[in-house]
Amino acid sequence: MKYKIYCFTIILAFCCIGCHSVKINKEVMHTAAKNPVALGVIGLHEEDVYSSEFQVLAIPEYKKLVRVNSTSVDFNKMTFNTYLKADKDNSQGIKYVDSLESKPRFLTLEILDRVGTIEELQKDYNVQTLTYLKSQKEAAIVTLVSLALPKVLIQEINNAEAIFLSDSSYKQYQISLVKEGKLYKTISFAETTIFAYELSFFCWGENDRKQIKMVDIIDEKTSCSKNAYRDAEKAKGKMNYFKL
Prior knowledge:
The chain has 6 helices and 12 strands. Strands 1, 2, 3, 4, 5, 6, 7, 8, 9, 10, 11 and 12 form a 12-stranded antiparallel beta sheet that branches. The protein is an alpha+beta fold and 244 residues long. It is 27% helix and 36% strand. A hairpin with a 5-residue loop joins strand 11 and strand 12.
């Protein structure tokens, strides 16, 4: 009897945790119904049987534009319901009818230039963020978001030659669009509704100067490469060990 109760509890836990995620383009993403997130922010993700939450703890400055990739995706019943959980008033005015062949679309935006992101995070103006990351191995960065936005803005983004994540005033992030080598339009994330996201984690290792540095940003289910560690203190300990 106890064994059956235990098995039922495990199954229930997996089912409930599954309620906090959605599959988009073959990728399982966290849903953002409770606390809205933004591309490029850093924080801690907590998930259990009852809830899923990403707590934003650091908003880095991206003074240098960070290249982003965009993909246009058709809404289906599951993704539309996920969007409505994040935006109960349907502020984007999306009209979805499951029986119609033509479906409204949304975008996924992913940080493409991870090397450039690492460089930005290690600049002097992000020293507080870097200090926090070194002390918290569970800290994660939002590297991919699914977002709903007006059709005209989707078209603008799709027509751009290049897309970047950039700062506006007061650490407010925006989407910067480039055409013919020139920045011609910016779109505030406030004009969008983010309803799902993916996280990435940081790897630490030794550089040529025998210093511990951020060396990689890896996907959630990926391991750091050889001689790199999620824990900066562990990387430091390994470096000292090899010096002996």
